[in-house]
Design a protein that fits this description.
108 residues, alpha+beta, Arc Repressor Mutant, subunit A, 5 helices, 3 strands, Metal_resp_trans_reg, transcription, HTH_ArsR_DNA-bd_dom, Metalloregulator ArsR/SmtB family transcription factor, WH-like_DNA-bd_sf
């Protein structure tokens, strides 16, 4: 992941409603959720929800797919994984570690 993409993704997640939306979609799994269900679950009004969904789609943190009359939103697991890898790529002084808390000899 390039630094520009990481900054865009982190900026999109650095807002309470957008972070809640992203976490909800992570929990929903690959099936995702329609916008109305996300809004009801998080009690976000439709006008605000559409703005936040647009920002997350723009940052490539979620994917919007048309299914009939509905748009289903899914977490972009590929981007989420790339962001985590970007943030931890120099972990443990460059030594590979599977579990950040157990394998690293240095405190993070």
């Amino acid at each position: 992941m390039e630094i520009k993409n990481a900054i865009t993704a982190l900026a999109a997640l650095a807002q309470e409603s957008r972070l809640a939306i992203f976490r909800t979609l992570i929990q929903a799994g690959p099936e995702g959720m329609p916008a109305g269900q996300i809004g009801q679950h998080l009690q976000i009004p439709p006008s605000s929800l559409s703005f936040h969904l647009k920002e997350l789609v723009h940052a490539n943190m979620i994917i919007a797919q048309q299914e009939g009359r509905f748009i289903i939103y899914q977490a972009n697991f590929k981007t989420a994984k790339a962001l985590i890898e970007f943030l931890t790529e120099n972990c443990c002084a460059g030594h590979p570690c599977d579990d950040l808390s157990a394998s690293c000899s240095k405190d993070i």
